[in-house]
Amino acid sequence: MDFTKRMHRFTVVPSLTxxxxxxxxxxxxxxxxxxxxxxxxxxxxxxxxxxxxRHNPVEMLGILQQTTLDKLTAxxxxxxxxxxxDEKFREYLSxxxxxxxxxxxxxxxxxxxxxxxxxxxxxxPTYSGGLGILAGxxxxxxxxxxxxxxxxxxxxxxxxxxxxxxxxxxxQELYPENDFYNLPLKLERDTAGAPLAxxxxxGGRRVVAHVWRVQVGRIPLxxxxxxxEENAPEDREITAQLYGGDLEMRIRQEILLGIGGIRALHxxxxxxxxxxxNEGHAAFLALERTRLxxxxxxxxxxxxxxxxxxxxxxxxxxxxxAGIDHFPPDLLEKYLGRYYRSLGLSRDEFxxxxxxxxxxxxxxxxxxxxxxxxxxxxxxxxxxHGDVSRRMWKNLWxxxxxxxxxxxxxxxxxxxxxxxxxxxxxxxTRYLGNRWREDPTDPLLWKRVAHxxxxxxxxxxxxxxxxxxxxxxxRLKDHLRxxxxxxxEIAQADEVLDPEALTIGFARRFATYKRGTLLFRDLxxxxxxxxxxxxxxxxxxxxxxxxxxxxxxxxxxxxxQYSLDRRFRGRIVFIEDYDMAVARHLVQGVDVWLNTxxxxxxxxxxxxxxxxxxxxxNMSVLDGWWPEGYRGNNGxxxxxxxxxxxxxxxxxxxxxxxxxxxxxxxxxLFYDRGPDGIxxxxxxxxKASLQTLCPVFxxxxxxxxxxxxxxxxxxxxxxxxxADGLALAVDLARWKGDIRRTWHQVKIAGIEAEAAAEVxxxxxxxxxVDIAMGxxxxxxxAADLYCGVLDSRGNIVGGELVPxxxxxxxxxxVHRFRGEFESRFCGRHGFMVRVMPRHxxxxxxxxxGTISWG
Length: 854
Known about the structure:
Low-confidence stretches: none
Largest sheet: 10 strands, mixed
Strand content: 15-25%
Mean pLDDT: 93
Distance between the termini: 77 Å
Shape: globular
Radius of gyration: 29 Å
């Protein structure tokens, strides 16, 4: 007998009345995670329970005895603190925001931000690493700035794995079940009180998902859960693990995220006009948005797609094709065959949406390609990654030069208040005032760091380093107890690391390209650096390898074994189970953050940004965000951005560079002290780092940039195309069809340039171009000069576009255009003529196969 079907279920919740009820309200809004006074309030309930529950106040309130809660009302100090936090919370929610001041007005914009993972706090384990933590920081800054945004993701029953190391240092995985009713979540219900239920067809089976809400300040985050009795056992597993299972599990998760996410918003009465895809995992949302418009307006797929594309934004985080989801056609047919046929698409038409070459039957369906084709704006996550992405996807736009590929960049940032230590925050407030909390993007404000007394800055950082060392010792003891160490070995953990020694941190996902063991290439040289009694150096490692990544696990085992080596014992520590709590201690306490990826495989990286806000210094390969951040006086660059074909040679060169920097620059600078024990040279670098990096590398700047350059333009484009029942979108689809049919008639008939073989600098060069246009009228064609300096291979480098203006009809269908450009640089120059369609209302429109060069 299946007793679960006869079970009567109910939920027990804490009985908090009167003023204490506000405690529960605050606990269910993750605003408290970046408000130190609120964190201290919850710690005050029971500090031991705070640690045991992974800092989860919802679970704490459920565990505390009612008598204990009742006693709180008689504690005047606690109630006073609760009142202060509550007032701050209410003031935050009602405050006038950046968006209110700068962007409001007109029709309401609603942005839906889709991500496979969200790292908001360790008490809500719905993240694995950088992508999720960035998504969480994005929501927090959107809340601070007042952006009208909602988040969409999946609620994993087991989340990402918990890591522990066995006695040999080999990574082991645990998958503890999350108790949703003791997490800061609430089940969304309809007006009758029943849970909201999203329905999907999943390979011919009906799958139902419930919708849970997490409140992140002003921002709601909706998470979908398929662990329901009405689902088949295999479908209950869709939301079991983050990045678990095989390719078939991945496509089911991505269908749920994209298609199910849009349906969940529809049930909630939310109609987003801008959808932001954080990576290609959510790209199926574009198909569901298209389907809804088709149903609402009775139009075809290509017509609805024009409107949908206008309201989509895509951010790619991956610099290599191997890191992007590709699905074989048979898997797509199994799970989306009925769906794409309901859209009026043939198999080939559907598969073409995810292929670079639509005519190649052997090409897999790529989620990033689908996202790029169905997004109005696309971006990488650093300037270097933008360049890499344009080269990576150039075959999608084969007729455009690399710099004109429509993939821009918005460099990542971090949520300042989440990652800043309490001590550093207090110091900044004393000398910068309070404005840095609301607007950390003002560089003039950060110039005031110069006024912070060196002794105060140093003592503040020393306290954070001391706390990190104590934390590392405590975690090492926990590990030793778990593997059955002796009492003596456990007691010796109190002697590892030195609270006053130069402390280097290295923590990230252990993928091979991040080269976690690069520091160990020359053990004798490393021993000399670490074992010095006069100028000691120590390194703290943390990070997880994917459960199926044997090579990544081997890197962790290797580091763990080095930590046991008598040459490095007490100077190298590996902290297991890397999560946001471990990350906070590390980024707040280290002196140097080491980053050693193979350039250009680190799309951005954000951990070093968190270190910078806390006064730590970065030492990194010039990859990801660091080429934008490095100034020469605010940290160290490993190499000069060289990339060698021979990987072993690359490792040798950059390994030596690390040792050289440590021996000749980093260690001497740290230990060069005045009579008062203050390292003034080091503090000068700390201040330079704070002044140059803090105003730039925050998610406040990042989200403002997304709003100005993507959300609002995308919203405006969406409004234009969706007006009058999508009349313009329908017209655009028809117009594109006409252009594709007639573009073969367009020919560049002649080019005349009034320039000698050599011209003086600053010469204005007129150009006349005759273009045969066939049946296309002149106002529906855009002609430009593409001009610039030539490289050694005769290619234009960093070219600029100069518009050509129609001047007259020539003969028959040939029309004459003219323009001019200035020779502003010496050297070999060249120009070409580019002709592309121009929509009467939307301007130039690039469609593959509808561009001509001459």
